[in-house]
Amino acid sequence: MAADVNEISINYEEDGVLLVKELAKEILSKGAWATIIFRYRQWDKKKEDYGPEMYTIRRYRKVGGQYMPQSKFNISSRDQAARIVEILSGWLK
Q1: Are 36 and 16 in contact (CB under 8 A)?
Q2: First to last CA, the chain
Q3: Using DSSP, how many helices (H) and how many strands (E) does the chain show?
Q4: What integer is the mean pLDDT of 73-92?
Q5: What is the C-alpha to C-alpha distance for residues 54 and 22, in angstroms, rounded to an integer?
Q6: Which of 39, 68, 85, 90 is deepest in the core (most CB within 10 A)?
């Protein structure tokens, strides 16, 4: 894992193929616990191309000087992401 929260990535490569391609990330909180939201695409073996954009929120805990994954929430679609934004926007007014 990473010692610095800025080094955390969800890029994942296997057999020379980048299966999870991180497109963007925003660090929501830092410290002993870090929360990061990622935008990414996954490799589709059948299509031999990347699928649609997806989103995930992940929590990391710093243990022994290294950030270790603790939990994650995958946003399943653009529609679900838009609905989350809509609800939070309403609550924050």
Answers
A1: no
A2: 38
A3: 1, 6
A4: 95
A5: 10
A6: 39
Do 62 and 34 meet the contact criterion of CB atoms below 8 Å apart? yes
Which of 24, 18, 76, 23 lies closest to 48, judged by CA?
Answer: 18
Q: What is the pLDDT of residue 40?
A: 97
**Taking the CA atoms of the chain, what radius of gyration do you get in angstroms?**
15
**Collapsed DSSP state (helix, strand, coil) of residue 55:** strand
DSSP structure class, residue 3: S
Q: Is 46 helix (H, G, I), strand (E, B) or coil?
A: coil
DSSP reduced 3-state for 58: strand
Exposed (0-12), middle (13-18) or buried (19+): which is 52, by Cβ within 10 Å?
exposed
> What does the pLDDT look like over 16-73, one tens digit per residue?
999 999 999 999 999 999 999 999 999 999 999 999 999 999 999 999 999 999 999 9
pTM of the model: 0.91
